[in-house]
């Protein structure tokens, strides 16, 4: 297995990456912003993505997005092909793309919004902290990307203050000042349950 910084030669995998992301979201029943092969290809060509390959076979992927004129970066689209799940590959990819983000954009804060408990745990292990959406980028283009998510109505209904996703932030300067403590997985499970209770039941009543 090889995990490398993607480049133009890897654009041939763009379509299967998008398909794998979409299928994963469908199986989990969670919302996710849609990606196109063209968008994924651009990330690879710019050196803002990490890809895992088993020989010539696609195994996993994640890319970097730059927001707020370089003040924030996000590691998005983390995905592992079903044939390679359960082997710790997601963690290796996450560590690789996080290190790449910190090297390429050293002055940026790294953030994430996700409904996935596994991703929350990975983020926590790297030093991310749960934060309110107001502490994330105010770049409108980023939030516009949520329009293709099935939970977008929740985001708009709360005036972009809350959603089923949890916002997480890594601030290198803040982490240097105080010891970073990992958050237990049960805390994330509880947080996710509270959000689903608040928003999903309301949706059902409206219907």
From TrEMBL:
Transferase as UniProt keyword: yes
Organism of provenance: Flavivirga eckloniae
The keyword Oxidoreductase is assigned to this record: no
Pfam families for the chain: Acetyltransf_1 (PF00583)
N-acetyltransferase domain span: 1-149
GO molecular function, one term: acyltransferase activity, transferring groups other than amino-acyl groups
Keywords from the named record: Transferase
InterPro entries: Acyl_CoA_acyltransferase (IPR016181), GNAT_dom (IPR000182)
Designated name of the protein: GNAT family N-acetyltransferase
């Amino acid at each position: 297995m090889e995990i490398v910084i993607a480049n133009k030669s890897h654009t041939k995998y763009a379509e299967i990456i998008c398909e794998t992301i979409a299928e994963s979201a469908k199986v989990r029943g969670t919302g996710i912003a849609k990606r196109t092969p063209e968008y994924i290809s651009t990330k690879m060509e710019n050196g803002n993505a990490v890809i895992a390959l088993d020989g010539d076979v696609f195994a996993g992927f994640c890319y970097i997005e730059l927001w707020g004129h370089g003040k924030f970066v996000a590691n998005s689209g983390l995905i592992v092909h079903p044939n390679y799940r359960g082997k710790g590959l997601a963690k290796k990819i996450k560590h690789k793309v996080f290190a790449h983000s910190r090297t390429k954009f050293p002055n940026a804060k790294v953030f994430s919004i996700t409904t996935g408990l596994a991703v929350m745990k990975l983020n926590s292990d790297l030093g991310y902290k749960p934060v309110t959406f107001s502490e994330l980028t105010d770049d409108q283009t980023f939030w516009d990307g949520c329009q293709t998510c099935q939970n977008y109505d929740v985001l708009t209904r709360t005036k972009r203050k809350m959603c089923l996703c949890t916002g997480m932030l890594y601030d290198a300067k803040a982490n240097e000042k105080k010891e970073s403590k990992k958050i237990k997985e049960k805390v994330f499970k509880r947080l996710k349950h509270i959000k689903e209770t608040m928003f999903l039941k309301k949706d059902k009543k409206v219907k």
